[in-house]
Amino acid sequence: xxxDQLIASTFGFFSSGTWTIVRNVAVLxxxxxxxxIAVWVYKDARRRIEDPWLVVMATLIGLxxxxxxxxxxxxxxxxxxxxxxxxxxxxxRAMEDRxxxxxxxxxxxxAQVEANxxxxxxxxxxxxxxxxxxxxxxxxxxxxxxxxxxxxxxxxVEFPTFEVRPPRRRRRAE
Length: 174
Hints:
Layout: H1 2-14, H2 17-48, H3 52-63, H4 68-76, H5 82-100, E1 129-130, E2 137-138
Antiparallel strand pairs: 1-2
C-alpha cells in the first residue's frame, strides 16, 4: 500500500503545476543554450572563413543537429582566424623586405651603405674588394669580374675582413 501511495504521489507531482514550470524552464534553458551555440558558431565562422556561403553552411551544421553540430564544426573549422593569417602574411613580407636590405648596412657600425661601396664612409671598414683592372666592386664568391672579365686572384679574395682603418685626420684651416 505504501508503494501505491508512492506511485500516486510521484504521478501527482508530474501532473502538478510545479512540474510544468520546472519542465518549461528546463526546455527554455536548453533552447537558449542551443541558440547561443549557433550564434557562437556563426561568429566564429565569420572570423575564420572568408566565403559567406561557407559561413552559412557552418552555421547550419552548428544549428541543425542540436549540440552535435557544434562539435562537428569544432573538428572541421579552419585552425586560425583570418586576421591571424593576414598578420602572418604581413610579417613574412616584412621579413623578406628586411632580408632584401640586410646587406645594405655596414657590419661594424651599422651605417647605411650602397651595394657598390668598397669602404664604409663612416667607419672606413673595407666592405668589398675592387677589381684590379676596372676597379669595380667584387662579391666574395666571384671567380671573374663580370664587368671586364678579369680573373679574380685567389689572394684578392680575402674579404670581408672588416678591418677598421683609422679615420683620416682633417687639417684645420689656419
